Amino acid sequence: MTAATAPSGSSRPAHRTARPRRYLMCRPSTFEVTYAINPWMDPAKPVDTALAVAQWERLRSLYRDLGHTVELIDPLPGLPDMVYAANGATVVDGKVLGARFRNTERVPEGPAYLAWFRANGYLDCHDPRYVNEGEGDFLVTDSWVLAGHGFRSSRDAHTEAQEFFGRPVVGLQLVDPAYYHLDTALAVLDGDEVMYNPAAFSPGSREVLRRMFPDAVLASAADAAVFGLNAVSDGRHVVLPESATGLMHQLRERGFEPIGVDLSELLKGGGSVKCCTLELRD
Ligand code: ARG
User: Fold this and answer.
1) 74 three-state secondary structure
2) Looking at ligand 1, which atom is closest to the CA of residue 106?
3) Which CATH superfamily, name and number, covers 22-279?
4) Residues 60-83: pLDDT tens digits?
5) Which of 18, 148, 241, 280 is deepest in the core (most CB within 10 A)?
6) pTM: predicted TM-score of the whole model, two decimal places
């Protein structure tokens, strides 16, 4: 894998720099699909838990090979969606905003994740008042916190996050139930650089995104539909579902190194790379 060169005349860096990250993940050893709270979930469709674990283990080793640190939270019985660690909290400057889930099936995950943070030395933890599904709907760029609403997190949670983090929170309205969390429709690549699927947003939010990120990578419907935007970037390597081939090409043109992974079993719960990865910004 070599970094591609940025197109001539472009102000974009030809060589991207990776910054080592710390991630929190949850092994899918009890993963199954027993209920449906998004259009991807079908309890009638069999899930191969052993395969889910194997695919997840490959993602975890990949992060380690890239020089990142991976912390683990134990999965709790009866909470199959705990594997989607991104939903467990939002961590910025070492401050932890806990999650409060919209669907009753996932409600116990909020306190479970918060307990992990308290037990692991995080002193500034906030038990949220309003529904927010962690980094599923809060994505952090250098200048802003981008915040989804429409399906899960509430608008009041955006205000709560802005107050807690002291960073500007920009609300974005999601309109397609297939892209029910912000991290299924948009990914932060580096600094204030993002890629997104315009069709997932309301006309007003699309216009906001266009103004804020005139240079963004825009995903095709086909790449969005294989969860190509559910990606994790360290500033250079972008880990994303391997079937998002168009996005991989677009990313290479920008000087990133896309790395495709197969998380087909986790996709049956409506999540992929980013959903399985919570960034610990200490
Ligand atoms: N089954 C889970 C739900 O619907 C999937 C969550 C995916 N996570 C994410 N960060 N988008 O809540």
Assistant:
1) coil
2) 12
3) L-arginine/glycine Amidinotransferase; Chain A (3.75.10.10)
4) 999 999 999 999 999 999 999 999
5) 148
6) 0.95
Choose which residue among 84, 197, 278 to substitute to test ligand 1 binding: the one with the highest number of ligand atoms within 8 A of its C-beta.
84
Q: Which of 181, 237, 249, 276 is catalytic?
A: 181
Q: Any idea what the Cα angle at residue 92 is, between residues 91 and 97, rounded to 5°?
A: 45
| Pocket (CB within 6 angstroms of ligand 1) | 37-38, 41, 81, 84, 86-87, 106, 136, 181, 183-184, 269-271, 275
Query: Quick check: 147 and 153 in contact, CB under 8 A?
Result: yes
pLDDT digits (tens, 9 = 90+) for 118-174: 999 999 999 999 999 999 999 999 999 999 999 999 999 999 999 999 999 999 999
SS3 per-residue string spanning 55-87: HHHHHHHHHHHCCCEEEECCCCCCCHHHHCHHH
- What number of residues does the chain have? 282
